[in-house]
Design a protein that fits this description.
478 residues, alpha+beta, four-stranded mixed sheet, two-stranded antiparallel sheet, 22 helices
Length: 478
């Protein structure tokens, strides 16, 4: 006797419905969100332009088959490539993330919401070149919504604690907003997003010793490109999986999330873009940003006292729990990917040299024996208040405090920094510096006249929002 198999489709998971409805129906009214998104667009593209100076990044770019070009395809800013939107999304996403210098969101899960720009810009540019009248405002709207989906899911749900990489949220958010750009229906968007959850998800293996490696620099590009692919597959009429999250035994919750459904702290709106963290001064994992600021202050104090790092006995870093879990590293650091996720390294370099740049993670700098010698004298301890304030919705601080004790028993006054320069509480100080960072990155790639034209458009919010996407991207072709 054969078993009865029901053909009744389950009702879609509520999370899928919430995401789809938000993408299709929510109208962004926050001027603060649009202004922040404009700065975010500038900063994110600038991070990509700086990454193009690194052969380890550029070797991964271009078409899959060398010499291939796609007429009316998406262009990759800062390059001559014109590609299909999936491969263009990978290119743009890899550039953006390569140097760990784009924006950040910190909560139960962390990540970099501007990673989604790879899929957003590639899709919008491709559509704009093929008859769909998309403007830069459409890109900013998609960015705000991608930030929100990724960030709100991250507020209460820790994927790292079950060993999954945060790029799962890039894949989900990008799939949702790219579905919106493709004008998929709510049901089709549910289908597309369900595909993103059903996908096998990246492990954090490549972010942690003993396997830390350069995949962490292209993983988000891979995720946002996969999102474009899934949305395009869905556009053909491909079915979805309505209980992809909740299906007993086989859904995401049971297989990968210890059977726990997602928790939500707040509904989807524009909160994440309004409060996103910018990496303005240092290309460093964000939990260390305030520690680096403290180290820069202490570097000057060392100079004033006539001492050097050789005179230091110990350095204590008071920090928050997430920093200890992610970037408190002892022992050998094998490559730049290892070094930019080690708080001891990111404190030692500015203490010694008075700087921290992307180049300081390269082997040529890391070979300086003083760095590892100083690293061995740096200890991290958790401050419970710092941890509480890190999670508090009204604070969202990323605090670090550094104290130095010399071999003769004397000490420098502890330096404390709760909010990094890229925090919303420091927007007034931070945004002019962000524009200067963008100017510097434009100059790395374009002649002065071209750089000025790009900057002038980006600084004119009204004109930028009304610019066709393909015209904007064409300004950044070399």
């Amino acid at each position: 006797m054969s078993a009865h198999i029901s053909n009744v489709r389950p009702k879609p998971d509520k999370v899928l419905e919430l995401i789809s409805s938000y993408v299709k129906n929510y109208k962004v009214k926050s001027q603060d969100a649009y202004t922040t998104a404009r700065y975010c667009l500038m900063d994110t593209l600038g991070c990509g332009f700086e990454a193009l100076e690194y052969p380890a990044c550029t070797k991964l770019l271009g078409p899959i088959v060398k010499g291939t070009s796609v007429p009316n395809g998406a262009r990759v800013p800062g390059t001559q490539f014109q590609l299909d939107p999936v491969q263009a999304a990978f290119n743009i996403g890899a550039m953006i993330r390569w140097l760990d210098f784009n924006d950040t969101w910190l909560a139960a899960e962390w990540g970099h919401p501007s990673d989604n720009l790879g899929g957003i810009l590639a899709t919008a540019d491709w559509l704009s070149r093929n008859g769909k009248a998309l403007k830069v405002k459409d890109v900013l709207t998609a960015m705000i919504k991608a930030h929100e989906i990724q960030g709100v899911l991250a507020l209460e749900n820790s994927f790292n604690r079950v060993g999954l990489d945060h790029v799962v949220l890039v894949k989900v958010a990008s799939t949702a907003v790219v579905s919106g750009l493709l004008n998929l229906s709510e049901d089709e968007t549910i289908n597309a997003v369900s595909q993103a959850w059903v996908d096998g998800q990246s492990l954090r293996t490549y972010r942690h010793a003993p396997n830390t490696g350069s995949r962490k620099s292209w993983a988000a590009g891979d995720a946002t490109a996969r999102a474009v692919r899934l949305a395009l597959i869905t556009q053909t009429g491909e079915m979805g999986y309505p209980s992809a999250l909740s299906a007993k035994g086989w859904g995401f919750y049971d297989v990968l999330f210890k059977g726990k459904p997602f928790k939500f702290q707040r509904p989807f709106g524009s909160y994440v873009m309004e409060n996103v963290l910018f990496k303005i001064s240092f290309p460093a994992e964000f939990h260390s940003q305030t520690a680096v600021e403290c180290a820069m202050v202490l570097h000057e104090e060392l100079k004033k006292s006539g001492r050097t790092t050789e005179d230091i006995k110990t350095i204590k870093i008071r920090t928050h729990e997430a920093a200890i879990r992610i970037i408190d590293k002892k022992g050998p650091l094998n490559n730049p990917a290892d070094r930019d996720h080690c708080i001891q390294y990111m404190v030692a370099v500015p203490l010694i040299f008075g700087r921290l740049t992307a180049g300081d993670y390269e082997d040529s700098v890391a070979a300086d024996k003083r760095i590892d010698q100083l690293r061995s004298r740096i200890v991290c301890v958790e401050d419970k208040k710092f941890t509480r304030d890190y999670h508090a919705p009204d604070k969202r601080s990323i605090a670090n405090a550094l104290s130095v004790e010399f071999r003769d028993g004397t000490k420098l006054k502890e330096v404390v920094c709760e909010y990094p320069i890229g925090h919303k509480r420091r927007r007034k100080d931070g945004m002019p510096l962000l524009v200067e960072k963008f100017k510097t990155n434009l100059a790395r790639r374009f002649p002065a006249k071209q750089s000025r034209a790009i900057l002038d458009l980006c600084m004119d919010g009204k004109r930028l929002l009304g610019t066709p996407v393909h015209e904007f991207v064409d300004m950044m072709v070399i």
